[in-house]
Write a structure and sequence with these properties.
Number of strands: 5
Helix content: 40-55%
Structural class: alpha/beta
Order of helices and strands: EEEHHHEHEHHHHHH
Distance between the termini: 50 Å
Largest sheet: 5 strands, mixed
Strand content: 15-25%
Length: about 230
């Protein structure tokens, strides 16, 4: 069975509209293998070369001064792309993040990400719970996922929360099923590899007599029912 690699991704930005010049200031990615979180992750702050809007600062608390000595997107673009390429991306409200990410990639001459390889958990939640709140906070509350570690929004902490929400949303049944099949196949293969010797067990006369005496003491044996 081939392991399924998925990357849960979130970003923070200077504002809400990259078309108006807003830029990414933080990227957080969590790796899942067969829906299980690994210790492999990607996280960086980014110098956006512009100021952070007050509205955005109120949400994530990342200031322009804090970002002054952070790397430019061009400095981290290749490492970021290498981490996410060839994997399914799991994003909450994917159009927002992908719009910003593709804008940054375009600015440094790198290929854009297509929406075909993305799972948008916002759309999944709306389909599964129509009419109910589908924000990340609301889904954490629905699935009893603690928000105590998060004071403000942040790309890495939100990715960790989203990873837990995503597993709850999808149920993880397919992974369990594949794991059981793999174990069954491995067990069968192991049995087939063993060479069991042919053995004959010949009863002695004493054993035969003991067996016959035992049979006589069983009242209404089932095998007589079918004779």
């Amino acid at each position: 069975m081939t392991d399924l690699r998925e990357v849960v991704l979130d970003t923070e930005s200077t504002g809400l509209d990259y078309k108006q010049g807003d830029r990414i200031i933080e990227i957080g990615c969590i790796e899942l293998i067969n829906k299980v979180k690994t210790n492999n992750y990607f996280h960086t702050y980014v110098n956006p070369e512009r100021g952070v809007s007050k509205g955005a600062y109120d949400v994530h608390g990342i200031s322009s001064d804090f970002l002054k000595d952070k790397p430019l997107f061009s400095d981290i673009a290749k490492d970021f792309y290498s981490f996410i390429k060839d994997s399914t991306l799991v994003i909450h409200n994917a159009k927002f993040d992908i719009g910003f990410i593709n804008n940054e990639f375009q600015m440094v001459g790198m290929p854009k990400i297509t929406m075909s390889g993305i799972i948008d958990t916002l759309l999944v939640a709306r389909k599964k719970f129509p009419g109910s709140p589908a924000s990340l906070d609301a889904l954490c509350k629905r699935f009893n996922i603690s928000l105590d570690k998060r004071d403000k929004h942040g790309a890495l902490i939100d990715s960790e929360l989203l990873a837990m929400v995503y597993v709850e949303l999808t149920g993880n049944e397919q992974t369990k099923f594949q794991f059981q099949i793999a174990n069954h196949n491995n067990a069968s293969a192991n049995l087939q590899k063993k060479n069991f010797p042919n053995r004959k067990f010949i009863l002695s006369e004493d054993e035969k007599n003991a067996h016959n005496e035992l049979i006589k003491n069983i009242s209404k044996p089932l095998w007589n029912k079918y004779n």
